[in-house]
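Weekly modeling sync, notes
Attendees: AB, CL, MP (scribe)

Item 1: holo prediction request
CL wants a bound-state model with S-adenosylmethionine before deciding which constructs to order. AB pointed out that an apo prediction alone won't tell us much about the pocket. Agreed to run with the ligand included and paste results into these notes for async review.

Input as submitted:
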Amino acid sequence: MAAAAMLHRLASRSGFIPAKHVLSAACRRHSTATADLIDHMDKKETWDRFYQQAAPDTPPLSPSPSLSPSLPRPLEWFFGFPDVSKLLLATLGAEGPPARVLDLGCGTSDLGPSLLASSSRPVDVACVDFSPVAVALLRNRLTQCPPQPRHPESCLEVLKLDCTTDLLGHFGSGSLDLVLDKATTDALLRSPGRVAAGQALRQCLGVLRPAGALLQFSDEDPDARLPWLERESRAGGGDTAARVSLQELGMLRGVCYYCYIVSPAPSSPEPPKTEAQEP
Ligand SMILES: C[S@@+](CC[C@H](N)C(=O)[O-])C[C@H]1O[C@@H](n2cnc3c(N)ncnc32)[C@H](O)[C@@H]1O
């Protein structure tokens, strides 16, 4: 447990605190991989190693009929769907046209599948991660244990995409209603110069409809996150300016979590000049 304590201190200093059971499981079995992760959270290979090693309960990526399949379990960072279900379902509303939802850097989280199973409004959920290992593990779990959509028109897919470069090309501009980001920006903020986090933010703002929203779940203090969001959302030019607000989620297992809400705010066109204003 000494390794677990050390890693928890490291993780706390980094502002990145995975749920306790993830840390302790990871520390017990995979302290090297997890320490590697803390230092290189923007690297795909690091996440591949982490998911490969931190998910020993999962069957191999190419399941062999000779092995008895044990059901893989999700790894949840920070907290799971039940802790934010009210907020998410209220954001979507009880009914309406199908909402297109993206879970950014989904890992093997159950957030997307749980939303599919819980939303009375039809949802088209895309769970996206750049780690092929995470994508394969999540697909594998969903094949073994398919979530039952609450609405018959709801659907879910798991995609391997890099959220710093691929979202606009894949989804198209102004096409999504809701982007969920649980701990992914927290990881990307540890990239050199925080560049990857800014790129991902601007990709998200680009794919959101004008009335859509990006919800970032984080334990980062508002004094740090709010100015960063405001600055970075303007960095791409007028089209990606944004409105930023905050909801405190409260204390969970001794840590205060926040939901940062970012909505695209296209720069308003110049108002037409009235005759009185003409020089
Ligand atoms: C801290 S984990 C959070 C996982 C999941 N959202 C959860 O709450 O359990 C960060 C995730 O982001 C993914 N990730 C990091 N950089 C990424 C990128 N550029 N594009 C897509 N996914 C990325 C990692 O593979 C990892 O699964």
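Recorded for review: Strands lie at 99-104, 123-129, 155-160, 176-182, 208-218, 242-252, 255-264.
Action items: CL to compare against the apo run; MP to circulate these notes.
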